[in-house]
Sequence to fold (363 residues):
Amino acid sequence: MAPLALGLLRVAFLSGAVSLLTLGSLWMFWRRVPAPWVGVRHALWTGGVVERDFGPGVYFSPRFLESWTRVDGAMQLMRFGGALDEHSGAPSQPGSLELRTRDGNSVWVALAIPYRVVPGRAHALVRAGLKHTWTGLARETARGVLVRQFSELSLTQWNDGEQRQAQVARTLVELNAALVRYDLAAKSILIEQVVFGEEVEKALQKRQLDAQKTLLSQVAAELERAQGNDLVAEETQTELARLEAERVAQFAKLEFEASVERDEILRPAWGYHTLRRAEADRQYESELAQGALALALTEARREELLQAALASKGGEIYLGRAAARSLQIESVKLDTRDPRVPSMLDLDQLAALLLGRERKPRQ
Fold:
């Protein structure tokens, strides 16, 4: 047992030594760069940075001769803006992008900028000493460019989608021109939300109110010119009342120009629905009256034909026979010697008697 145990111990010792030697050589002579990082190689003896970016992989690099720095090569996302305050409407989180429009109004913009290190320039970024500060520098540079460029827009331009997108395109060009000194590049500028200050809301409401007042003044002038025509005056007065009610409703629930356009689109549809419903009701009542009239005329004609049939000779016979059938006699005393007495078995003679016609005497 002792020699066997000694042999197993020697094998275990040799296996451990080989494993440690292998792992040590791997650690000492090889470097791994995982995805999506980019490796930058430094020469320890010369103190210089190798002019090359090393992508994901394993590289031979003795630790006593070289050191490595890893730079994130994936797309980064720079965000400006936060949650909106329920009372003031302004962003409540720090880092929000607050601007002043060209005409002096407050606006908060929530946006995102995807950017990354320029491919093949990570070693230049490290050589410039920015390996720990490039994300902060990118954010501060972007903030300055965004504030400067977006402040050139007026309130009207902010509300115009085409002009706003054109300014975003110009801002992206200037932003990349500023980021190139840090070997960075922005892909796009994505505006997520635009919130205007309270004074802007009041200005928009005042603009809508002034437009309504102008329209009411025009309608009032038309009413004054049309007083000679009663029909035109009545229609104009109705239009004036409708516009006044619309102005009050819009001033109370104003939600920019979108709500106004929605009301203008829906109003003709409801008018068309009411008109078609009224026409259908009138057509229904007319057809119902015609049907009732036709039914009454048919009933009258039936009575007329029945009376004519009963007044004819055949009708008299029919009525006489019906009367004879319904006649109930409990007891009869007949004088068979009297020729005027009809036979109860002769229904024709009995009908003639009941109708008051001459009857033939019995033979």
Observations:
- The first strand starts at residue 30 and ends at 33.
